[in-house]
Description:
By secondary structure, the chain is α/β, with parallel strands linked by helices. It is 36% helix and 16% strand. It contains 15 helices and 16 strands. The chain has helices at residues 9-16, 24-28, 60-63, 72-82, 96-108, 127-144, 165-169, 174-177, 204-221, 247-259, 318-322, 343-358, 361-376, 415-425, 447-465; strands at 39-43, 46-49, 54-57, 118-124, 152-156, 187-190, 226-231, 235-236, 242-243, 262-266, 297-300, 312-317, 385-391, 394-399, 428-429, 436-439. A 7-stranded mixed sheet has the order 4-12-11-10-7-5-6, with helices on both faces. α4 (72-82) runs antiparallel to α12, α13 packs parallel to α15 (447-465) and α14 (415-425) crosses α15 (447-465). The longest helix has 19 residues, at 447-465. The structure holds pyridoxal-5'-phosphate. Pyridoxal-5'-phosphate (PLP) binds next to α6.
Amino acid sequence: MITDATGDWRARDLAVLWHPCTQMREHHQGDDTLPLVPIERGDGAWLIGRDGRRYLDAVSSWWTNLFGHAEPRIGAAIAAQAGALEQVILAGFSHAPAVELAERLLQVAPREPGRAPLAKVFYADNGSAGVEAALKMAFHWFHNHGEHRRRKFVALENGYHGETLGALAVGDVPLYRRVYAPLLLEALFTPSPDAYLAEPGESAAQRAERAADALRELLEAHAGEICALILEPRVQCAGGMRMHDPLYLRRARELCDAHGVFLIADEIAVGFGRTGTLFACEQAPADNGATGIQPDLMCVSKGLTGGFLPLAAVLATQRIYDGFLDDSRERAFLHSHSYTGNPLACAAALASLSIFDSDDVLARNRATSARMSALAAPFADHRHVADVRQAGMIVAFELTRDGDRRTPFDPAQRVGLRAYRAALERGVVLRPLGDILYWMPPYCVDDAQLSLLAEVTRAVIDEATA
Ligand SMILES: Cc1ncc(COP(=O)(O)O)c(C=O)c1O
């Protein structure tokens, strides 16, 4: 039980709090089935508990944190903004941080030669809310153009886009979705290009082509019924850090164009340098000499504010924006959140984007990910590791009984949970996705911290699979 100078913190917490994404009973059991860790402050890659214990935040606090906790430049930007304007309605009013951030985002957004660029920014206040806005925009655009049959969304098997009902409808992780299925709008799921699912002898690129063939068939079978395809470029994060060959992005772009369907890139988890490039869409292989694809709608959140404040943005093309201009208010996008474009969050995001320039973050990340790769490689030989995969600053380890893809552990063994607990005891936050462990540290992580991470990962895999 976690106690400190203020008494039994755990009891106080459990008396009043309902924690996210948690079977609360596991906290109440009292045997630390699922430990509850009170954190007092953060410092770079470390989280520091009320009892003074330090935990290496290997999951960047749900993939939000970019440059480390309590990054002083972002903190200062928020403080300065708080002294001037903390919040103002964004309907009918404007403010500098919202405008400047939109300008900056559009400057750095993925761009494809010959395609009109992303041109407008709509703010929301968390990732799911951003996804909701993008889905509604896609549907409403076709509605405004009299294409009333286009009301379905295509999404990838094993994808994840958030927990609100619209976002959940286009997600395919059963643990989150199944119970709510009767409430959800209709979505069509197409096979994931997930390289882990490749047949023996099949390369990741071949797997991507096969998944693209299935997408083609689906779009053909539902011609004129689909408004958008939504996908997580490069990595299906909540689906177990499953990675695909970026060739799939190129094919998806081509197929969406051929079928007049909008492509929504959900860069909420992978944006802002996580996979090596500022946005994962940039990694699609060359077409006419230019790499990268440009989506019609792009959702960003999480790292957008460097991990300080909730904020999301949906970037849209001019064509989509223009489809809502009319004398009728009903043809407008009347979607709103009270805190849309919150000045504090926008100021944090501007400070975060500045750090990318001033610290040459992407270059540093390349060196860090090379180090992560070297530390992760030996795990491939572990008898319970079926796959070690990496995309930039994300490394994942798939644990199975016999170290192959056919023998997942019995979920009742809770191998991932056991590894999580064992890692916490060793001062590392290694929050698993089922039986998949992953490293997704803040970008400030140093060599010593990475070595600790690798050492603890090996020890807890041994312990959890013993
Ligand atoms: C790809 C992706 N989309 C959307 C979301 C939802 O974001 P939020 O948790 O801020 O609602 C997540 C969250 O993990 C995500 O990984």
